[in-house]
Amino acid sequence: MNLAITVNGARHQVDARPETPLLYVLRDDLGLNGPKYGCGLGQCGACTVQLDGKAIFSCVTPVGAVGDRPVRTVEGLGTSDRMSPLQQAFLDEQAAQCGYCIAGMIMRAQALLDADPHPTEQKIRAHMQTNLCRCGTHMRILRAIRRVAGIASDGAAA
Amino acid sequence: MNATRRQLLAGGGLLVAFSMAGHGLAQLAGGGEGGAAPPPLRPDLPGSLKNHPVLDSWVHVPPEGRITVYSGKAELGQGIRTALLQVAAEELDVPPAAIDLVTADTARTPDEGLTAGSHSMQDGGTAILNACANVRMLLTRAAARRWGVEPERLATNGKAQVVAPDGRSLDYGALAAELSLHVEAIPNAPRRDPRHYRTLGRDLPRVDIPAKLTGGAAYVQDLRLPGMLHARVVRGPSYGTRLATPQIERARRMPGVVAVIQNGQFLAVVAEREWLAIQAMRVAQDSDYIRDKPPLPVDDGPHRLEKLPAREISVLNTHDGAREVWKTVRGSFSRPWYSHGSIGPSCAVALAEGGGLTLWSHSQGVFDMHRAVAELVGLPPEKVRCIHTPSAGCYGQNGADDVTAEAGLIAMALPGRPIRLQWMREQEFGWEPCGCGMVTRVEAAIGPDKRIAHWNYEVWSNSHNNRPVGAGGYAVAQEIRPGFPAPEPKPIPMPEGDGDRNANPLYVFPNMNVRYHFVPKMPLRVSALRSLGAHLNIFTIESVLDELALAGGVDPLAFRLAHMQDARARAVMIEATTRFGWKTRPRGDGRRGCGMAFARYKNIGAYCAIAMEIEVERETGAIIVHRVQAAVDAGQPASPDGIRNQVEGGILQSLSWATREAVTYDATRRTSFDWGSYPILRFEEVPGSIAVHVMDRPGDPFLGAGETAQGPTSAALANAIADATGARLRDMPLTPAVVKAAIGV
Question: Which of A48, B117, B483, B695 would be A104's cystine partner, CB 3.0–4.6 Å?
């Protein structure tokens, strides 16, 4: 059936059953690469996108539940030529190894920064807790987020 | 013919000398994992140039436009693409942006065996370094001929030009047009002076990162070919099981399902869209399962290995005369089976067309793969092309090889349609080969001089090298009919080793007896996981060193230095501990504590020393890591920041292994199937800070650094816990429950 969703500012008609996870609509109908299949269970965050500003797991969000609320993926932030401040901070910190988790990390962090432009270190860590990275890029991801949040120090002692 | 060519090039006597040196000292391609790289044609040449001595295998300089460099090594997320670009740019003396780098494609690049074992810089980087130096030498000589001057008077300027003292210049392209690169390298082409390096040793931003930050097509998962279909395999919950009554017909009738592939027990559904394929898989899997292999070792975990038949391998047996024994330390150490835990489940795309098969795979071994998959599907190897395409980090043999073989089988049944197969999360956990569970036992003593008097060491392990080199290496090979038997597991010989990797201490101890009990029978399906047996061997050695130092009342750093003669090993230990503030560190007080550890990976790779400060939350047993300081010597660094990134990652991954990871199972199946049942380190648990110092070693040979932190980190953690609490923990994972029990609260 036909559904209308708004992704990265553009309205799209997609032919999908409402129970289809948003992830597959984004990847397979709209051809986006940012949201990744990691677990399909809402446990790893590789599929994280913003829905109405909040970070959500697109792998467990039925497309039918999206309604009129805007969806934003990492493609909606910036391009490799014109990166958003957060993408640029990830680049400056070289905050990726394999990078499979990174689009989800960026979208989760962006949701925090949208709601609170100057979060504390503790708040950043708590907010990012849901997203997994197996390469162990956490310290650089935290540095990139701090850079945008305007926290200078390299991690308060835990 | 090869012998004749070698004799012509090297001369008989020299050839013999190289062969003998090569036998004793040669490192095995890919750390000894997988199949051998092609036989060396020119043992006198450095790195993989031995196997591929002709320059145009590595470098193409067109009359106009960009230079192409070819490598058989693959980008696994470790940043090798950028590091190799830096190497090539430096020795060609061109900007990195002027080079296209083609990697690991069986139709285009040299076969360099596996991308594994921290060999990519040592073998692949060294080959490109010297191939590019050869090319620059030939271009310079061509300019010298053109101008009628001595080549020694000419230079290159970093802009793909040869320049004369009078200011004249010639572009590489113009010079290359009159030059054939279809010639063999010489071993001693003049290299660029490290004092004048323009690219090597600089923190060049990784070239693959921008696409990964912006939703570019960066992974095999993102490959979308015209007419592509989506497949899912239909399976029992884990390796060693099969479905009792798979619902094949129900799946076949679902709208959008194009085919159900059935070959023996191998089942796959193929659909027009990915979500449809997943739904069809779920319908088809609506069945109980049957275990068709021996039960899993529920009672004794890795200690089961000690009870299984073993092949005895003597690693070291030295006799230096009996020394007086003052204090003795005994202990058994273990680690459980680990999951690779790739964030992206394995994925491949396959296309059977025109009598051939093309595979896009994130396997670490595309060269083995094109031969092994050819055998599996019944094609000659030259009809199977395998193109490495990046994916989520694998850290060893995850599902990458299996999923590609399976995609190949499905594609052969549906010629003309590209097939994208991705495993589900639970299939990755259930079917990938695990990292080996292992056990060690040590009995060691110090004399009244507070130096080690003797060292008795045993290690039990399965093979860490079950990478497919023939069709039988794939799990699917025992599901299809007719099938292929799984090959006999083999150990990797020293100096690389597998279960005994790093069981030979780099320290100088007298009276060493080190034995490897190689256990062929595998309770769980296992293969390579980052650092192989080095992780537990270093954990054990470095834990026992701290115990002996404590017994002798000697500072752990001083005790190590007293037994270490290798100057570079001493240098990293001193560098890490000085930066850490070892002398003024807080002493163990029941909660806080500090620990250090050291290893040189395989005793032939990078050197790494780690110091860390931790706190044990006595009420819960939780371990908080406050700060970690590492020092790494990887020879000439290509990109120091690339090494820092790898080592930071290794530290965090090793902390995760040591504190919380273990594959769980009941007698019939693995019960770790998601991130709830296989937890890994998350943001609130990572250290307060990690600092990695990369030693500057201008012009020194490259030493692979990707696995060097795995052993020292886990060991430094155990040493810090012992310092903090007095409790020596020997069996990983060191979970809060284990810590609490050990400190008796």
Answer: A48
